[in-house]
């Protein structure tokens, strides 16, 4: 079924991405139509162009545009190791010729044997020589293949690591809004570069194999006086290629649209690890099974096979039947010819044609298959190289930060009519609305407000993780955009719930707060003390050198269920993870922030609710230690808990729905009885007030 570009999802299905909007807004896609198809439980949307000619033209344009990238790929790989590159290339050339060579030698041997049998005088020496030559060649082919595979494996490691590094550099360069932007998403990896190179080599090898085999077969056909044999061999691969139907190289999107299957998946998910406690305490077991059964009965035998396979597989038997018949065509052709022209054909000729035709058909199949992959690979290569051109959304300025005269002062801010909405956000209204605010350098600011009121957003803007959508942000009296971002980042500590522990040792997890002193254990231990992380680190066998969350890249075979097996015990030792609690994670992250103070460059400390998992004492200690290091720094705290901090704050900013509803010191705000701050404060104070015992 073909539908216009504004596809509507099936009624019982979840919303699909906004394909319609994309196809309408971009002139590049104006002739795109979307075909819809139901494949078992899947709804499949395939984008095609209205005219086949236009499609071919587009493909050609894409290939042309990819040629410079293809050249760069080969140049880059050649640059990584010239010797390995040449060896792999030579081994591929050899692979392209070996089939034809072996085919030629087999033919020669069969012909010598046949002449000996017909004349009744076997030419022992010739047969022996032909056999030795064939065996020698077989051994050389096997040896060169082995060698080629080894070279290829070595080149593969170099290529994957090289392109992974290139992509890592790009990803590290990208700022937050650019990384969140779908058009800048990097979906390729180092392995894709290698796969593309390997597939292209396979394609070129197949071209060589096919051509060289055709030369040998044509030669044989000339000897037998039958020039049409090659054409007979070509019919099946050409038919298969013309009727080839696969999704691999198409722009498509598939989603599970069957509500019964979705229901079954939800029930399965509830049984999974994450919901264990809820399911047990809620006694949901029997209900889950009952619901799963009901959905399964409704689903019946509707296929849940991957849409890729369902699409690939022919819906009628016509194609597979015709293909099988065409597969036997060379044999039928030989048989008919042997009957019609018995003098031209011999058993050896039939055997030779039979084996060479199946080799040729196989090579042609590979050639067409790798041809289909070719375009996909060109696309991956283009994507890898285009990542270099991704421009950051946040512009970098040229002015160094801080200026010499403000080097010992905290960062000051001025926000003028500042509005912000998150890129791609579907929410009505802005996350921040026309905010006007001044923050004096060195002051202690506390931001409070309800969930979603814009507290974290405001500190993200101040830390230059995002740029305002409109309005102005001034830092130390100059436009924020004029400063060199690296300088601003070096002067900022951002401690939030977003901070994670790294898959490194405890020492590095803390030390990385200040790159120049990563290995200075004295400073690391001091920071751990300040962050309140000393106690739990000291309880670990390997202390600060204990690795955290290291990605365990292990493979085990046939060990499942053999818990007493000595190898299982080894595996357990290697895979044993060190788990730390939520509160311990926050302590460790806080220690990293204290380590950052050692750089001596910090002018701004932003603390965004990093203490939700800390016990009351831990939180108080953390805030006190941060305040101890306050000199020469502006400190901004985002919190839901009133009390300790708000009472000491120079300014309390109370946020509501993206606006500043109130601003001032604690006493001033409390005097405004109907105000947002006093309301929130009183709710918390009331919650802790002593309740009279109920009768
Ligand atoms: N990454 C994001 N993408 C889109 N919208 C976002 C994103 N982060 C926050 N928002 C939206 O922006 C608004 C302000 O969010 P923000 O995180 O600043 O609130 P908050 O006051 O810090 O909330 P909380 O107290 O729950 O942490 C909310 O409506 C939120 O849904």
Automatic annotation (TrEMBL):
Give the PROSITE patterns listed for this entry. Answer: ABC_TRANSPORTER_2 (PS50893)
UniProt keyword annotations, A-Z: ATP-binding, Hydrolase, Nucleotide-binding
Task: Please state what the protein is called.
Answer: P-loop containing nucleoside triphosphate hydrolase protein
Residue intervals of the ABC transporter domain: 413-682
Q: Name one GO molecular function term.
A: ATP binding
The domain of life is: Eukaryota
Which organism is this entry from? Ephemerocybe angulata
What start and end residues bound the annotated signal peptide?
none
- Region described as Disordered: spans on this chain: 1-28
Which Pfam families does the record cross-reference, listed alphabetically?
Answer: ABC_tran (PF00005)
Q: Quote the InterPro entries the UniProt record gives.
A: AAA+_ATPase (IPR003593), ABC_transporter-like_ATP-bd (IPR003439), P-loop_NTPase (IPR027417), Type_1_exporter (IPR039421)
């Amino acid at each position: 079924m073909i539908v216009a570009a504004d596809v509507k999802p099936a009624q019982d299905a979840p919303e699909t991405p906004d394909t319609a909007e994309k196809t309408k807004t971009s002139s590049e896609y104006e002739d795109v139509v979307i075909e819809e198809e139901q494949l078992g439980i899947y709804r499949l949307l395939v984008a095609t162009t209205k005219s086949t000619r236009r499609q071919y033209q587009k493909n050609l344009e894409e290939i042309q545009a990819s040629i410079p990238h293809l050249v760069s790929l080969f140049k880059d790989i050649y640059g990584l190791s010239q010797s390995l590159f040449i060896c792999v290339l030579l081994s591929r050339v050899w692979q392209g010729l070996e089939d034809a060579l072996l085919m030629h030698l087999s033919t020669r041997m069969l012909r010598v044997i046949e002449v000996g049998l017909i004349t009744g005088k076997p030419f022992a020496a010739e047969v022996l020589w032909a056999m030795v030559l064939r065996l020698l060649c077989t051994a050389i082919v096997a040896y060169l293949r082995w060698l080629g595979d080894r070279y290829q494996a070595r080149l593969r490691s170099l290529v994957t690591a090289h392109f992974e590094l290139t992509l890592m550099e790009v990803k590290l360069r990208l700022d937050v809004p650019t990384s969140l932007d779908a058009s800048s998403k990097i979906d390729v990896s180092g392995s894709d570069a290698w796969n593309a190179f390997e597939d292209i080599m396979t394609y070129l090898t197949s071209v060589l194999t096919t051509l060289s085999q055709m030369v040998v077969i044509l030669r044989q056909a000339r000897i037998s006086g039958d020039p049409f044999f090659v054409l007979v061999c070509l019919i099946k691969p050409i038919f298969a290629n013309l009727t080839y139907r696969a999704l691999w190289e198409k722009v498509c999107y598939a989603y599970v649209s069957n509500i019964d299957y979705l229901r079954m998946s939800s029930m399965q998910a509830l049984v999974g690890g994450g919901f264990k406690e809820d399911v047990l305490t809620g006694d949901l077991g029997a209900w889950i099974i009952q619901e799963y059964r009901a959905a399964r009965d409704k689903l019946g035998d509707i296929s849940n096979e991957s849409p890729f396979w369902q699409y690939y597989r022919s819906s009628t038997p016509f194609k597979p039947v015709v293909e099988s018949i065409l597969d036997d065509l060379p044999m039928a052709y030989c048989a008919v010819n042997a009957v019609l022209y018995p003098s031209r054909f011999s058993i050896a000729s039939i055997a030779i044609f039979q084996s060479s035709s199946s080799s040729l058909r196989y090579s042609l199949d590979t050639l067409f298959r790798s041809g289909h992959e070719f375009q996909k690979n060109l696309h991956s290569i283009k994507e890898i190289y285009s990542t270099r051109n991704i421009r950051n959304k946040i512009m970098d300025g040229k002015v160094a930060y801080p200026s010499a005269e403000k080097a010992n002062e905290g960062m000051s801010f001025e926000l003028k009519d500042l509005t912000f909405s998150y890129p791609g956000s579907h929410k009505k209204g802005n996350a921040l609305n026309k905010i006007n605010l001044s923050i004096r350098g060195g002051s202690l600011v506390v931001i409070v407000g309800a969930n979603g009121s814009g507290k974290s957003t405001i500190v993200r803007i101040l830390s230059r993780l995002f740029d305002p959508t409109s309005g102005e942000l001034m830092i130390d009296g100059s436009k924020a955009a004029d400063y060199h971002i690296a300088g601003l980042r070096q002067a900022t500590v951002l401690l939030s719930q977003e901070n994670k522990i790294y898959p490194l040792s405890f020492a590095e997890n803390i030390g990385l707060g200040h790159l120049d002193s990563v290995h200075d254990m004295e400073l690391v231990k001091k920071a751990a003390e300040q962050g309140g992380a000393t106690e739990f680190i000291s309880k670990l066998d390997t202390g600060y050198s204990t690795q955290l969350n290291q990605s365990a890249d292990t493979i085990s075979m046939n060990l499942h269920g053999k818990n007493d097996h000595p190898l299982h015990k080894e595996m357990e030792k290697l895979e044993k993870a060190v788990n730390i609690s939520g509160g311990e994670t926050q302590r460790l992250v806080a220690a990293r922030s204290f380590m950052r103070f050692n750089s001596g460059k910090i002018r701004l400390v932003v603390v965004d609710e990093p203490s939700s998992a800390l016990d009351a004492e831990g939180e108080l200690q953390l805030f006190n230690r941060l305040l101890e290091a306050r000199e020469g720094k502006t400190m901004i705290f985002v919190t839901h808990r009133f009390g300790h901090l708000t009472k000491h704050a120079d300014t309390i900013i109370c946020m509501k729905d993206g606006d500043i509803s109130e601003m001032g010191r604690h006493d001033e705000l409390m005097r405004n009885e109907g105000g947002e701050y006093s309301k929130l404060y009183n709710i918390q104070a009331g919650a802790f007030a002593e309740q009279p015992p109920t009768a």
